[in-house]
Amino acid sequence: MALPMDQTTFLAFYRDTMQSYSKSFKRYTVKLLKDKGLITFDEQVDFGSAQYVEKGTTISSTTMNPRFSGFYELLEFTKLYKYSVPIFYESSSEASLPDVLDSLGCYSFDPDDFTPTFTISTSITECLPLYWIDGSDIYIKFVLQKSYYNPSNDLISYRFPIVIYINTETGILEIRYDSTRYDPHFSRDDYRNLVIECIRWLRESLNLKLFTCEHRALIPTIKGNTDGSVKIYKQMMDLSSGGAAELTASESTDYVLPFIGELRELISENEELFNCSPAIRELLTKYLDDKEATASYPYVYVKWVMPVETDSYMIKITFDYFDSVYTVMQHISGDCKDLGRERMNNAIKYLCESGSYTKGVELWPES
Hints:
Strands 3, 4, 5, 6, 7, 8, 9, 10, 11, 12, 13, 14 and 15 form a 13-stranded mixed sheet that branches. Helix 8 (260-269) packs antiparallel against helix 10 (278-293). The protein contains 11 helices and 15 strands. The chain starts with 6 loop residues before the first helix and ends in a 5-residue tail after the last strand. By secondary structure, the chain is an alpha+beta fold.
């Protein structure tokens, strides 16, 4: 088990994690704090339980204040994650999932009554997760310690949450996680291992039978959607010649993927220039690594179209990825204002209820 930290060190993990997120996510977080009545920028007005903070210091001041721990723990349950792996499940236990979680000693999370344990584990095997019930949905959260070097070459420790979302109505779950901060030693196999560890925990601790996500009906089902609310935006299919073809919807807002090899050559030829800005170099390098990791796998981009374009969102679905078994969904932020769980929940619900995803073969222990 992880050893407890002092309060200041523990709270610094909240701060340094939030500081590493994008500006748009920080703005989203500040808006949530204001909308929930937790903060105010007006020190002359009595807002009851609202905490006065100076503009520009909201993240740094609230993360280091223990009264906001429940807020930031809840944010990790409800935020948008970059990746998710969908898996169908069946429970072979007579007890309900919450009862099984309680019997394991897992903590039931109450955002209004939360006291941290001041521990953060380094692996799933030693981590005792929190769980949160919202209606018929169950969220199980593991938090791991990770670290990275910032542009000043300081080693920064941060929280790396992994959320298992269980939709009890459709019998599907998702393993949700972000990409790590830039780490040249963290590879695609490390993400695979995280997913496999979660699968092993679900099978051994919760006694669940797990099944692959069968996706053969996805493309024809979505192409047959006549109302235009969900549509195929782009797809890549392997060719029998060994090559691949990318088919793109004819939209003026289409993405154009760069030539990965040429970009790497550009970075190499301008090494001194990129060394002057290591943050930009690392950002580009990580982007290219991510693109290369999925380049040889068939995928589709699926777009959920809304009346207001900034409410629309897109997901890249890569088939037969880890071990040629799992489907990986990449949730693209783009211009979408929704940086919370709703779009993820709506997407997986649609894909299941439409028949785009169906239960496949059982995953065995070696999977």
